[in-house]
Structures
1.
Amino acid sequence: MQLGLSSCAVCGTGQLGVLRLPVMQNIGGFQRERSDPEWDAEANVLFLVQVECDVCGHVLLFNSERLEPSSTKSLVLGLTQEEEDALPDDDPAGP
Ligand SMILES: [Zn+2]
């Protein structure tokens, strides 16, 4: 997704890259189980997309829910299907 930045706004020379994994930010405290006495109904976690300059390290964070509707599954737990397909075949019965 193009966000309108082609080079770093701080150093002006670096290329911006998106980290593959999200940044998790706790909002209103840490999320706990409902049975925990310190459970807070307002606690939540935001998944942020980190964009980083490869020269100066300037970091931009974007709320992932603003980039895609929450109904879209943009976060994948574990490996993606493409990553699983790229794994070597570990079949112990193989040659
Ligand atoms: Zn920079």
Note: Residues 81-86 form the longest helix (6 residues).
2.
Amino acid sequence: MKRSLSTRAEAMPASQIRKLVPFADQAKQKGTHVYHLNIGQPDVKTAPQVLQALKHFGEDVISYSPSRGDHAYVKAVQGYYESLGIPLSPSNINITTGGSEAVFFAFWSTLNPGDEIIIPEPFYTNYNGFACMAGVKIVPVTTQGANGFHLPPKEDIVAKITPNTKAILLCNPSNPTGTVYTRQEVDMIAEIVKEHSLWMFCDEVYREFIFEPQEDLYKSALQIEGIEDQVVVIDSISKRFSMCGARLGCVISRNTELMEAVLRLAQARLSSPQVAQVMGVAAHELPPETIPNMIDEYKRRRDVVYNALTQMEGVHVAQPEGAFYLIPKLPIDNTEDFAKWLLTDFSYEDKTVMVAPASGFYATPGLGYDEIRIAYVLNTDLLADAMSLLERAIDQYNSTR
Ligand SMILES: Cc1ncc(COP(=O)(O)O)c(C=O)c1O
């Protein structure tokens, strides 16, 4: 008898961000330098204080920590939220192995197979994988580059609600669009969530990555009044402290029942890495200017990439307001092919660019084929060079077709 894989495994999509990696490896083997603009791996150096904490790890045993998180680290996270003006108790927080596990825990503790979750698209492509693992269906609300990928009117979102709808997910600031939702938009989502008794998942891993701060913005959905029991925040220190490899995030909610369920899920996987949590404590002790200085650097990068794209013929792009991504529309009708071609057929002065085709960031079939997602995670000089390569590549690709 032939053994088969699970339907879940069969349905699991390859990560749109990583699936071109073999072509990038081949390009590198041929001696081509590849600018990686396809993945949100910042080049910003992890703070020396954090690396010191790793170096001076003083325990005799690398052990499990409590499933909810190491006490010192939970306290550090609690203190961080306190500094934002958001009082939490330790039981509102469960440390996770990256923000990724926080998404799993949020989905697994609230959604049944067949349930629907409304997400503005384009969205972080790995939500597709998380939804597949939980057996839930993503119902997209399409947003448009022409208005900075801001939300459509309330009635367009409400029209997506069915008896199976259990949640709305907002990634704010947004990966992949760089949109920072206004207070009015967040309030509108909160209103829908309240009126239809839904969960509100807020992925806030880019919380500080806002380039034009506005006084009235929420620092977190945890500040919204009247839906305290429905808000589930997904957080991570991957980007905030440039510690992607530490794999540390957390789920936060004031809903006691939910957090008890999250803890049971967390107990099944025992704990998040202890060593990472020691580094995480050190990260939370960094001087307060650390994060704003990093945001200034990202703003300079945003400007280099955005300005270069606006000069390119046939390219349309909204100015990103936050995170470190943008989604330009290119004068190309199949960016999956183009992104692959960049690695297999194109190079200039032994260099090329790797980008993520945007179709994988949409749930609606057919959308995103003329768009790419760029992560501006290199310094401004390298980004300027990468943008001139991209411009040259677009010309060359179109002239050969
Ligand atoms: C929007 C968003 N959520 C969650 C994650 C997962 O982060 P982590 O590295 O903490 O697992 C990412 C990573 O890029 C992200 O962009």
Note: Residues 229 and 255 are 5 Å apart (CA to CA).
